[in-house]
Amino acid sequence: xxxxxxxxxxxxxxxxxxxxxxxxxxxxxxxxxxxxxxxxxxxxxxxxxxxxxxxxxxxxxxxxxxxxxxxxxxxxxxxxxxxxxxxxxxxxxxxxxxxxxxxxxxxxxxxxxxxxxxxxxxxxxxxxxxxxxxxxxxxxxxxxxxxxxxxxxxxxxxxxxxxxxxxxx
Length: 169
What we know:
- The protein is α/β, with parallel strands linked by helices.
- It has one domain (5-134): Rossmann fold (3-Layer(aba) Sandwich), CATH 3.40.50.
- It has six helices and five strands.
- The protein has a five-stranded parallel beta sheet with strand order 2-1-3-4-5, sandwiched between helices.
- Helix 1 (15-27) links the parallel strand 1 (5-9) and strand 2.
- Helix 1 runs parallel beside helix 5 (119-131), helix 2 (43-52) crosses helix 3 (71-77) and helix 5 crosses helix 6 (135-160).
- The chain is globular, with a radius of gyration of 18 Å.
- It starts with a strand and ends in a 9-residue tail after the last helix.
């Protein structure tokens, strides 16, 4: 099985956030790989990864990074594949520094950016991209989204049963 999504993180300390993307891709039966690469500590390896990703069958890259968060942009500069950046909370600035670093890319080097620690949404976005050319995956995605709707409908019904003295139904 060849991976079609690559999950990259700046270090394994980012795994608790990035594993949410892995779990969603696993649930959707999307083959993926996971690697730790650092834009600052292993720049040559990052460039080799980015320039070779498409030839290896990768179609979407999810890159998580905290603090200066250069990793998603450095990858995007070296590939034509879509890159989804996940800003990771990890500094005194609670991830806002990473968010701005990933959002503020120069013209011509876009990085789709999700919320701070939003790895699951990054995986959903990757699945949406892949589903454009895969009817089975599109059907799985539609079922997943319908399941989200059902959870809210059920939660709302349960809230109707919660009683308070001044709650009006």
